[in-house]
Amino acid sequence: MDIGTILAFIFGLFLLYIIGMLLVVPIKLLLKLIINGVIGGILLLIFNLIGGFIGLKLIINPLTAIIAGVLGIPGVILLIIMQNIL
Fold first, then answer.
1. Cα 84 to Cα 67: distance, rounded to the nearest angstrom
2. Euclidean distance between CA atoms 21 and 8, whole angstroms
3. CA-CA distance, 30 to 70, in Å (whole number)?
4. What does the pLDDT look like over 19-72, one tens digit per residue?
5. pLDDT at site 1
6. Predicted confidence (pLDDT) at residue 86 exceeds the cutoff of 80
7. Fewest Cβ atoms closer than 10 Å to its Cβ: which of 13, 24, 32, 85?
């Protein structure tokens, strides 16, 4: 084996690593968004159960679940404010 073959092999491995990382990062981001959306939906469900006693209710749909999942409790507060303004 000469040095050109070894360098080509190393470059190929590096390129394979870069392509692999470009494919894995969006999948991790998508999984995180889905998990946060589920957590947001559960948070909205709990809020609706507790808020039903005082007359507060939020609609649970994918957008509100993602907002509540990504932002957490401030996201639920934001949704309450938006519901009362709009």
1. 17
2. 20
3. 12
4. 888 887 788 888 888 888 888 888 888 888 998 888 888 888 888 888 888 888
5. 63
6. no
7. 85
Non-local (6+) Cβ contacts of 72 within 8 A are 43
> Could you write out the DSSP letters of every residue in 26-47?
HHHHHHHHHHHHHHHHHHHHHH
Listed in sequence order, the DSSP H helices in the chain are 3-51, 62-71, 73-85
Instruction: Give the predicted TM-score (pTM) of the model.
Output: 0.65
Structure tokens at 32: 């995180």
The DSSP letter of residue 68 is H
Residue listed under structure tokens 């990382």: 21
- Residue 72 tokens read as 């957490």
